[in-house]
Design goal:
There is one protein chain. By secondary structure, the chain is an alpha+beta fold. The chain has helices at residues 83-90, 102-109, 114-129; strands spanning 10-13, 19-22, 34-36, 39-43, 58-63, 67-69. Helices cover 25% and strands 19% of the residues. The protein is globular. The protein starts with 9 loop residues before the first strand and ends with a helix.
């Protein structure tokens, strides 16, 4: 797991215009393929209490849904951002919004045979040469 493992709260409105407190981890990534769950722990960190070796109590914790990390070869492409992500970005939350890729749509269809695919690629190459 790489990236920033601690987040400060972002107060904003969700996609239904309901106020909420959101903790975003926009640069969190996993470099090893497999299926994972994340455990999120909510604690209160007071500036004066941050001493080497000090402990803090856990207020609450929760687990994420299972997610899959793909190898580069098996990656189906970026999915479009959720309406919640778009709503938070619009309000100034420092997260990126993705449109999604056509590759993920193409992988779900897989209707073409190899011959049709190669023929299309040859046609594309001829068009580029002109």
């Amino acid at each position: 797991l790489m990236g920033t493992l601690v987040a400060s709260p972002f107060m904003g409105l969700d996609e239904k215009d309901e106020e909420g407190c959101f903790f975003c981890f926009p640069d969190l990534s996993c470099r090893t393929h497999g299926s994972y769950r994340l455990r999120f722990v909510f604690t209160r960190l007071a500036l004066g209490e941050l001493q080497p070796g000090a402990t803090t109590s856990i207020i609450t914790s929760t687990m994420s849904d299972v997610f899959t990390v793909f190898t580069a070869k098996d990656f189906p492409g970026m999915r479009a951002s959720t309406p919640l992500t778009v709503a938070l970005k619009r309000q100034g939350c420092a997260i990126s919004v993705k449109k999604g890729s056509e590759k993920s749509n193409a992988n779900s269809r897989k209707a073409d045979s190899d011959d049709e695919y190669l023929a299309r690629q040859g046609t594309m190459a001829k068009r580029r040469r002109r």
